[in-house]
Amino acid sequence: MILYKFFYAISHWVEPFFLWYFTGINAIYSLFMIIGAFGIISRKKELAAEDLTPLLNSDSMPEITFAVPMFNESENAITSTYNLLNLSYRYKRIIIVNDGSKDNTFNILQKSFQLIPIPKYYEDLLPTQKTRAVYQSKSHPEIFVIDKEHGGKFDAANAAVNAIRTPYFIVIDADTFLDDAGFEALIRPILTLPKTIAIGASVRIVNGCSLDFHRIAIPRFPQNFLPAIQGLEYLRSFLLRQGLSSINGIFVVSGAFSVFPRDLIVQVGGFCDSVSEDMEIIIRLHRVMRENRLSYKIQYLPDPVAWTMGPTSLKDLGRQRTSWHFGSLESIWHHKRLFFNPFYGVFGLISVPFVILTEAIEPIIECIAWIYVILSWSVGVLNTPFFFLFMLVSFGYTFLYGIFCLVLEELSFRKYPSIKSLIILLLSNLVENFGYRQISVFWRLRGFSRFFKEFKRVQKESRRIQGLVKTAKVKNR
Q1: Can you give the pTM of this predicted structure?
Q2: Which residue among 140, 231, 259, 348 is least crowded, i.e. fewest CB within 10 A of its CB?
Q3: pLDDT in tens, 43-80
Q4: CA 259, CA 64: separation in Å to the nearest integer?
Q5: What DSSP line would sit under 230-265, residue for residue?
């Protein structure tokens, strides 16, 4: 009786809160989805109209370095390196950083590419763990390998940045493959808009695709349930990023593939010790450029350029999603002063509140909502109209969002051309709300738990990042 009265009393304000919250975030997602759709359509027209062949065949193209951190990547080291070597883009270097691997990653690289030791030719402008030796490939002179003590992905990326001598570099994961045709389209923003300080592009799930001479030969949507769900999530998230990019408000580019100017990354202090170093560096770039009152552009291109391996087990996927959410919370904490701060323009007033009020706290709100629904049903006070509206604004929107992404993909890049792939995508979109979504909320709640457990370390790194921001001296580009 007491529980009945309690839930009846709170229902008058709890139920409207849940409905308004989910309706509100869905409205915001819809807005960015529509903006992103127009951006993709516009990009498709650009690709059809422009002919980069004369430019790409000229001798005036910028040289680009691929920075590839590797830790225990013996299974992917050779295939991913040959994928980069086989890119038709001629002006490239490849710097592989063996980040203290405990398997035979380095031995495989040494044997396959005939590595020979060379003098360390660069200065460590960014602090990293100790470098053991530097090598160059005898068979492919554009390949360099840095063998260093383990420090994590951010530390390996900083070691690569120290060694880079080209104006731009691309950070790419060892389990990621590049689409040769799509890659060339990324060069255009570098040439046409010098104020571009970072570029991201769409990343798709490589599971199920066929490789031919280390290239994506036949793109297929993943056949297994977990990779298929991830493929659908990637489609949705990158459409959102396209919308945010249109207002120069993007807060993350994929860590699996991202382009940066080398000098700028050195000037802002390099990558930081964060699980989501890709998100933190983008927010820091926004912040530094704003505080130095410099104009800039962080671009996201919808072109599907990179294909990455998705986890195939619930354990691995859960570990990944927990880390991602933990990393998001870290980055938000490091740059919490941007929240609704008009000094940072659109990014402070729209992007940062968006990521906090939706992606960061959404799992808590959804978990509480489900607890309320279950308990109110158990004591007999569940409001049936509220329940159906709640299902509609939470589950129904996700389904429609997935359908929209599917239609947009079919009308634009058509990277999944087979009917079977489209059917799998549609079925995945239908069933993900029942079971997978709930366990995904649990994984993200574990991210909160990890955040509080490691809060002292997060605070320490946050103080270091504040120092980097204050001392960053960025030249006008």
Answers
A1: 0.91
A2: 140
A3: 777 666 666 566 556 666 778 999 999 999 999 899 99
A4: 9
A5: HHHHHHHHHHHHHHHHTTT------TTEEEEEHHHH
